[in-house]
Design goal:
heterodimer, A: about 550 residues, alpha/beta, 8-stranded mixed β-sheet, about 35% helix, disordered N terminus, B: about 70 residues, mainly alpha, 4 helices, about 0% strand
Amino acid sequence: MIRFIKWKTKIEKQSSHVVILLEYDHIDSIRLKLSYFIFRNMTIETFFPYLDTKFSGYEDVSIIDENADRYIWFYLAPIAENNVIVEKVHYYTDLVHIIAERIQPGKMLIAFTMKDMMTIQSITSDSSVADAVNKYNASLYKLASEHKNIRVIDFAHFLDNYTPDNRIDWRYYFIAQIGFNPRLAAEFRDWFTLQIQAIELKRKKCLVLDLDNTLWGGILGEDGIEGVSLGGDYPGKAFLLFQHQILEISKQGVILAVNSKNNLEDVLQMWKEHPDIILKEEHFASVRINWNNKTDNLLKIAQELNIGLDSMVFLDDNPTERELVKKYLPEVIVPDFPEHPYILPVFFRNIIEKYFVIYALTDEDTTKTEQYKSNALRANMQHSFPNIKDYIRNLQIVLTIAEVNNLTLSRSAQMTQKTNQFNLTTHRYMEMEIKQFIDKKDWVYGLRVKDKFGDYGLTGLIIIKIDGQIAYIDSLLLSCRILGKEIEFAFIKHILSKIKKAGLSKVIAFYEKTAKNRQVENFYDKNGFKVIENSDDHKSYELLLDEIIEFTVSDVYKLEDL
Amino acid sequence: MREKIKVILKNILELDEVPEDISQEKCIEWDSIHHLQIIFQLESDFNVSFEPEDIIKMISLNEIENILNKF
């Protein structure tokens, strides 16, 4: 749902000239309007506290929130040995392709580029990680060139502003898998807001320039063409560079205009005759050189160019003029102008980043994309999956199911304490209590998950109380680290087949609702259980084993039962 | 200091009131993400840097106060 900024226009007589005052209720689009679903591989929630967001599981592409207005693809470079990073980054390239194909084409997907966070590199010629990351980034740009709804924003460029040691706070990486420094959150938010504005084309269209002491040093009417500073030594050099930079952005589509108190003839002569001048008459789409009020001139420029006042940025060295414009035309952006010409390059870079960044594939980008295209294509051919099942198969997942013993007791108890989302009953147990289950000959099985990228360790647990012919599933939980690969179905099927083999006739299971376990409210339903009792926050199920001949576990997993 | 901590908890957990015995266990809003936000805010407001071992322990108002007292 898109709400546009509402404009109310009222015209007031202000001394001799008419000033149009615009009032608007500003609706900050990214704060209020849109909901986002963010695909991620690390903990990044804390960087988006102001958005209406939901997050995927880690590396999870199996669930796409259909209700989101927009999607974000934000994968950080994995932290591992070089060869694993390379493999994983290739794998992420495949995942983003799956998502690109699966989201509704009418919804926008904003993909973040990646930057390597920590390559340990003693051999300077080994560029395998850098190559993999480049390929990944290139394939994002390629996707964007093929899909109208995909945009790339250059997160790697954001991180370039910080030294490697400031990009990540290892304390938070180790305790919470936060992939970049939480201290950068505020700056990240500002950066991200600007990127979104660029995507939404909220950029300004027109740069309106004063002349004296803005485009050159000195006052033309007093100092003459020979007397003003432009080119040559400082400060003329600084103004010359400034003109070059302004010309550059005009080539990129920003409209230039002049609003100056001067004699028109003097300026025309300056444009024709000054040996170093860069910005001349032909570069300006609208020229107001007179002794009129600058607000009047701005209104005329807006009319002439048929653009809104809110798409103009006005640069003027004179604070009084700036105040006047700010007061009467608050929609026009009027930045403070630097007092020293040597500050101009930094000043102008900020202006560009704030107001004139456009989201578009430039020719240069396109060549860059072309260059990378062949590489990306190669990468894609090695790893391309038409569907989820194939991508899971490619992970070479090994599930190991084993009874919990003294060595795994503490981790098992810890899992019952910590797991919130994929947890059917959320029964919290101490080590002692788990030990009691085992001593009573109840079943306590742990699930260990490995894939080609490494070992996730003990990440699943099921506790089954046995009473005669009936098995009661007291607890079933999986760590969120391994979700999204349909492992939960393989795990429960395998356990059910064990129960059947043990000769039991019936399984009773429970779902107990908490604030965090909504995602599993229908888990047993999906596995063929029948609801026998249903209240607001509690469901009981049964499954009659005699009715089922065999449980088959999907062959995409390798299963080890110890 | 305790009052300052309570204000942080109140704002981040969006509570009307912060009970003296508040802890992660007793407060449903205090999930792991909010926990991190609380820690970031404490670090920045008190200008300190916690040890990971302490961060894991700081799951009640009393514990937070204890650990801040070490600085």
